[in-house]
Amino acid sequence: MTVAVIGAGNIGVARRASSRAEGGVDVLLAANDRSNAGTIAQSIGNGVKAVDVSDAVANADQIIFATWFATTKDLLAEYKPQLVGKIVIDPSNNIGFRRVGQRQQSQSRGRGPRDNSSLRSFRKERGYVKAFGTLSADMLDATVTDAGERPVLFYAADDEEAGDVVADLITKAGFDPVRAGGIEGDRAHRGVRGPASFCGLNGRLVGRAEALQLIQS
Question: What domains does the chain contain, in order, with CATH numbers?
Fold first, then answer.
């Protein structure tokens, strides 16, 4: 299994998958600045390899777009033909910033709240999965909850097969995967109002029993 992480700003996903994965997960790290990606890949170690974005798309089975919403949208449009048959993982949340450290719901000019829970140009494609967006970057290194349980990482998918593949990746990375439903009904990736997002839980990790209660409430 080869997983590409596009975006070097948040490297928690790449670090977690490469250092904790069991069963052979190769991690590619891509960014606009190849030299920066190389430096970060070297700091992570564990076989993480820096590549160009085009190489990441071509050579990975699963591609995590750990980029800002606008960048993700542009990359999906640019590489859409090459992404056919791939599993595309979108961690984006509907979060913006009024000032440093103060979160707010993102807005689209003249159109009310922006729906980042599903990228409109790609959400109906097979292989599109929401995941790795319900924990903050520093929480991606956590191994247990306060209660000593394996921390849950939520995912959402319309494509059951793709969802199962991503659930396996989540497990290999050391988390307990819990499906938060399909893309349209996914509340776990809805930003500051999402009951399962790191904002809604105030940075608290949850175990499986509580996670199931959250998505059923």
Answer: 2-216 (3.40.50.720)
